[in-house]
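SEQUENCE WITH STRUCTURE:
===
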Amino acid sequence: MRKLILGLAISLDGYIEGPNGEYDWCFTDQDYGLNDFFERIDALFIGRKSYHIAQEYAEKNSGEMIPGMPKMKEYIFSRTLKSVKEAAVLISENSMEAAKKIKEQPGKDIWLYGGAELTEAMMKEGLVDELWLSVHPILLGAGKSLFHQQQHRTQLELLESKTYETGLVSLRYRINNG
């Protein structure tokens, strides 16, 4: 079965965006493991708000949502969108069941790219298999938190850690859903 990997940048105080939705604090001066990650995945799950932000960015950057990202199957989760770009798949009903079925299909792993609400729902359902967090050496003080109150503890197993000269620390954890 394919793994669902939540991969994103996070501030040291746990925020995935600043108080005004900004992510200008994220390092872009080097690869930080993205190219190796791209070799592991062939699909991504993305929520409506993150999809809009990514599309706006792509329009200004030669159609690339993320520099160097290869073509992959995109699944957009939204109850309000009526259409998405060509070759993308809109999932608007029974989203957690649809995600389970996609994970069971053959292929490489799947990147849970974003959307705090989508992430929270998939974590709650036990669909996320790994966390890959790029912890940036900044305290934002406010913004959108990655994790909210949960009903239970989640045990993690460290798979990999790497520290960069910039102070960014890359952490990969397996989620023990058992």
